[in-house]
Amino acid sequence: MGVLSVNLAENSYDIVIEPGALASLGERCRAVGLNGMAAVISNPTVAALYGTAVQRSLEGAGYRVAHIEIPDGEEYKNSATLNQVYDDLLAAGVDRGSFVVALGGGVVGDVAGYAAATWMRGIPFVQVPTTLLAQVDSSVGGKTGIDHPKGKNLIGAFYQPRLVLVDIETLVTLDQRQFRAGLAEVIKYGVIIDLPFFEFLETNSSAILAMDADALIKIIHRSCQLKAQVVELDEKEAGLRAILNYGHTLGHAFESISGYCTLVHGEAVAIGMVLAARISVAEGLCSQEDLTRISSLIARCGLSVEIPHYDRKQLLNAVAADKKSKGGNITFICNRGIGMYAMLHHTPEELLILSRLEA
Ligand code: NAD
Ligand code: GLY
Questions:
Q1: How many independent structural domains does the chain possess?
Q2: Residues 8 and 38 both lie in one domain
Q3: What does the alpha-carbon distance between residue 174 and residue 300 come to, in Å, rounded to a whole number?
């Protein structure tokens, strides 16, 4: 169960999923041939919890370790933070022979990954994800980047890590809200590509919410496996990889109009999935029963399925700013029943009408 491979020719890497995996970080970095100094990029919250364990493991394997902290929060996933990281990398003497360790959730992973992708034209990096969302999604697949004031993740690079190390024990300190937000991305995989996994989530939601270790390993392992399969077929999102954006188009729009503060990413995706399922019903791709089943699982996982209050014009503008928009049309991912995706093209206006957001 413990090690999965992402097969991308010379960019291939392993995902290690193991309780207590942090202790093996140093030796695993050596095993994949990483040398020089380890620049651990984290935030104050995660560094206080796991910085020492990470340092001990890296030093135990003979690495010199530099610590770089970025402020905690999506609002800091920006160019000012990135510039500060560059300053810190320079001050620490991180050169082309060194590597970055991203220790934290999706924000740290995206910023640290992008810093690694661009520092001295690219140095290797390792993902050590510590939120459920990062363990099942953002640490795998090589999307790195920062937000622009006009839109989320507008600046970035595809840059694969050399290793992903998932220690499920780090989830013990994660607050319940963030844990549930991560479940939205887990449900996503079931809805678009894996009906038996969706059924597993339905049957085991109590064990998952109770953070039963076996249930956690199963959902993280299956999510990473499904994501790896998609990324292996379409690393740079020429087509298929867009299915992983299920729930994200409208979810991002709600996240953006909330100023990235009322809703956390996974909560916005949960709402986006309900709306995507509504559109799927309107398009004749799935039944009302499927929509109810999807909404019920989301709700059972402790996520709100209520559509937040919104200003229609603001929402339309936010949808139109979507990266997947081409010539006014957006590639929109729907569910065909449960366990299969469909790709449609619609204008933002049509999406709002089909998802019954016309009021
Ligand atoms: P996050 O990184 O903001 O982490 C959430 C909170 O949990 C933060 O306050 C963090 O400090 C804290 N935290 C992290 N680990 C902890 C732990 N073990 N114990 C206690 N607290 C902990 O949020 P996130 O949900 O992990 O990531 C969201 C980001 O990921 C967004 O920016 C989103 O765009 C990005 N994302 C990227 C991809 C990708 O493919 N690159 C995919 C999905 C999402
Ligand atoms: N989270 C979407 C992707 O990695 O493509």
A1: 2
A2: yes
A3: 19
Question: Is residue 114 within 8 Å of 120, Cβ to Cβ?
Answer: no
| Ligand 2 center from residue 251 Cα (angstroms) | 14
Q: Could you tell me the pTM of the whole model?
A: 0.96
Q: Which of 162, 153, 131 is nearest to 29 (CA)?
A: 162
Are residue 277 and residue 321 in the same domain, yes or no? yes
> Could you say which of 155, 173, 191 is where a domain stops?
173
Q: Shortest CA distance to 224 belongs to which of 137, 166, 113, 108?
A: 137
Domain at 137, CATH number: 3.40.50.1970
Per the residue annotation, which of 221, 245, 255, 267 is the catalytic one?
245
Q: What are the Cα distances from residue 307, in Å, to 117, 236, 252?
A: 37, 32, 13
Which class for 52: exposed (0-12), middle (13-18), buried (19 or more C-beta within 10 A)? exposed
pLDDT tens for 119-171 read 999 999 999 999 999 999 999 999 999 998 877 888 999 999 999 999 999 99
Cβ atoms within 10 Å of 73's Cβ, excluding its own: 13
For residue 213, the domain's CATH number is 1.20.1090.10
221 is catalytic: no
Residue with tokens 């087509």: 239
Question: What is the C-alpha to C-alpha distance for residues 81 and 110, in angstroms, rounded to an integer?
Answer: 12
Q: E-assigned strands of the chain? A: 3-6, 13-17, 38-42, 65-69, 99-104, 125-129, 143-148, 151-158, 163-166, 325-326, 329-335, 341-346
pLDDT in tens, 33-52: 999 999 999 999 999 999 99
Q: Cα separation of 177 and 157, whole Å?
A: 29
Ligand nearest to the CA of 333: 2
